[in-house]
Amino acid sequence: MTPYSQYNPYSSHRSATYSRDGMVAATQPLAAQAGRDMLAAGGNAVDAAIATAAALTVVEPTSNGIGGDAFALVWMRSEQGGGELHGLNASGAAPAAMTREAVKNAGYDAMPLYGWLPVTVPGAPSAWSELSERFGVLDFADLLAPAIQLAREGFPVSPVVSRLWQRAEARFRPVFTTDATRHWFDTFTPGGHAPAPGEIFASEAHARTLEALAETRCESFYRGELAARIDAFSQATGGCLRASDLAEHRAEWVDPIHTTYRGVDVWEIPPNGQGLVALMGLNIMGGYDDLHARDDITVLHRQCEAMKLAYTDGHAYIAHAPNMRTPVDALLSHDYAATRRAMIGEAALDPTPGTPPAAGTVYLATADRHGNMVSFIQSNYHGFGAGVVVPDTGIALHNRGHGFTLDPDHDNTLAPGKKPFHTIIPGFLTQDGKALGPFGVMGGFMQPQGHMQVVMNMLDFGLNPQAALDAPRWQWTGGRTIAIEPGYPTHLVREMAARGHDMELAFDLTSFGRGQIIIRDPATGVLCGGTEPRADSAIAVL
Description:
This protein is α+β, with helices and mostly antiparallel strands. It has a single domain (1-29, 59-122, 251-542), classed as Glutamine Phosphoribosylpyrophosphate, subunit 1, domain 1 (4-Layer Sandwich), CATH 3.60.20.40. Helices cover 35% and strands 19% of the residues. The strands form 5 sheets. The chain has a 7-stranded antiparallel beta sheet. Strands 7-4-3-11-10-2-21 form a 7-stranded antiparallel beta sheet. Strands 16-17-18 form a 3-stranded mixed beta sheet, covered by helices on one side.
């Protein structure tokens, strides 16, 4: 791998960032600074990740919150100079009262997007406490202090967040009319409108909730006063979520899954996450040995076709791991990848699932001077989430249950105590047993597509982390439709259309995901970071 290549034909505004002593890459400068301050105080990459994540719930509520889910990949270096990659799944399960019958009795034929029905148990606070307990070195309360200060004293809203906030308000005004959802406006439009860029936004309620989490190491959320308040509001407004559901939740340590691509191991969290889709796409592309130029019609066509096939399989087979009848190893089989690759010809496919052999999100990356690194992602799923905000807490609950299907024969069918198909996925790269670093591209179903593209940008085309993120992206949106950013050469768009792809030029760049990358040179320890040009992103360094 050549992570330090300076060839950067796509960057229009910044180059890669370098540091030796520590780095935090996030979508918000104030959040990145919170993480950097933990490194400066003697904390490690895990402490920095928690502080950044907590701050992001304040400064980017359009994408995540205390009431969301989280996943992490954590590389902890050993005293002997090696290290180990750990996976954390902090997604929550469906409440005991959330059944297919309850959804259908409410008048829905599919999982709704808003209101109480798509609200599963939030896992983000449990991720913070679990990571701190196992790997952190600073006091937990100190990690949340910057977020508390930002919430209480206020912060100037950044431009991209402001635009997403205003867009959300316009969408929510006609639909958030129930007792369960009307508090969204009290919390997020206290002045009667979404904040403009540079406008100061503060939330005393959010600050008090973060203080309760800091004082109890997040126990209050699951087995304390906050849990009781969530339960009471749910019962009063027709929700399924109960204190007993919250009390049963625990973040789960899991074994990461991986594939090897161009000699580099690419790691993801196992299902119920969709990271498997990125690995399947890379497996298909790994069988080609003639990918010499990024802006080439054959390369672009094959990428889109490989992702179609991988995603179609993902939707057919990925579910909460205990409910998956198709093993992960079968889906990652190179023989199976070869059968899917053989389907790719010169014309666009209408993809269908294969037959394997039997057998609104924020992303951040941190690294410290000791070689520890964290790939962390948390989300309320669809922007602000379900629209359900617990009064006077600042807790906006996510709508992750929308990822379930009501088809009783599907592995991902809704059931109490079950985790839904999850879109948020942290990524990590290693080589020869040594950490290269964390990477991720947030953004719903764009995420595995973004993962595959930035990995190929670095490993196939020699782009450094910043260039890999700056490069224009494409997104398969279903059938033969490919949305593509304006930065792609016009002749490629025309040639793709000639091959049968329905090409859509998209100007809303936030729909193509927002990523961060940190790569560590194993020989020198120098960190090379890239941050997303499609967001208000920043890299903070020591």
